[in-house]
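Thread: Newbie trying to understand structure tokens

Hi all, I'm a second-year student working on a class project, and my supervisor (Dr. K.) asked me to get a predicted structure for one chain before our next meeting. I've only ever worked with sequences, so writing a 3D structure as a token string is new to me. If someone could post the tokens and maybe explain what I'm looking at, I'd be very grateful. Here's the chain:
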Amino acid sequence: MVLPLAGHGGLPGRDGLPGGVTPPAGRRTDIAVTLAVTALVVAWTLLLARSVHEPPARAAGGWALVAVGCGALYFRRVRPLPVAVITLLASGLYYPLSMSDGPLILTFALALYTLAAEGHFTASAALAAVTLLAVGFGELRQGSGRRQIDDTSLVMLAGWLVSLVAVGRAQRTRLAYLREVEQRALAAEREQEARARQSATEERLRLARDLHDVLGHSISLINVQSGAALHRLGKRPEPPVALGIAEEALRTVKSTSKEALRELRGALGVLRQADEAAPTAPAPGLGRLGALIEGARSTGLEVRLRTEGSRRPLPPPVDLAAYRIVQESLTNVTRHAGARTALVTVVYGDTDLRVRIDDDGRASDEGRRQGEGPGTGPTGSRTGSGIRGMAERAQSLGGELTARHARNGFRVDARLPLDRF
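---
Reply by user tm_fold:
Sure, no problem. This is what the structure looks like when written as tokens:
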């Protein structure tokens, strides 16, 4: 980036910049390096000039070349090739002209290093070769008795030039490596953030499924139980009988709502503050399947449980998913199927767990229209959010779920692998 100089907008301030503008860190470094090299060259030249009686015209020419060579260093990173050429020409004219022989060659050395460090390796190598050839050719023309640089010095000059180019090249490689490491670190950080967002999304989906299962099941049972009680009370039974019906309905509603609140607190536990106590009740699983079935029976549905295979502890994700699938299936049966009986089958296999729910009902017309009942075909075809949620639970564990009409009703069949845990 080239900063505006005097005459390019604004009044010039210090360092040749518009008034009030502070040069960036990179340009401040260039200014500091330029001033340091200039101070070194000028001080060394003045020290040597004390022992040399040089004509004023030659001295003025030498100082002009010193000013050109040192001043060009300010632009060494902005225009590395022109600065290298300018410092080389200034040095090439300075030593034949000046009698002080100051260290102006340092400006070319710094410019050559910068040229290689900025990535112009071919240009820097070519410029070093041209410099060596020019010096060698000039010494050959002087003759053996008038040479200023002997063969040993020429070899040292060659090694010096090669070292400058090599060090500049190494610095360029190092900076490229550091930039690559930084880019990899940034990419890894972005990937980590993407994984965190994905994990948060998956957690929100899991929480939404839990809330759907808990609220849908419990509120459906309360709705069915309340409706049944109202239907029986609508027949205007004797007061003692009516009181018993109401008491039974209220007791069932209280029990169901209490269970719903407990599970709701457990589902929302991931959102609690760090200083809040964690829920102490066990997570839902197949061990509580009996209570779930009793709740479904209280609505008038005849539910049977059948277990096949050797019953054993299950991984918590599989245990919870199996429980939620049975819960959602029974909710759909009580709300929409119009079934009288349901059979829950749990099969403990060597590598997977099978959960199957069969009922003898059909989805009501309302359930079909809303897409909330037990579907109208395989999973994914005109099924509602309940079946989609069950299928997502199974798929998140590497399993599968199908929901379809059977010969005498409807079947939900889920397979949950165990060998992944």
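A couple of things are worth pointing out once you decode it. The first helix runs from residue 25 to 49. The CA atoms of residues 62 and 345 lie 102 Å apart. Feel free to ask follow-ups in this thread.
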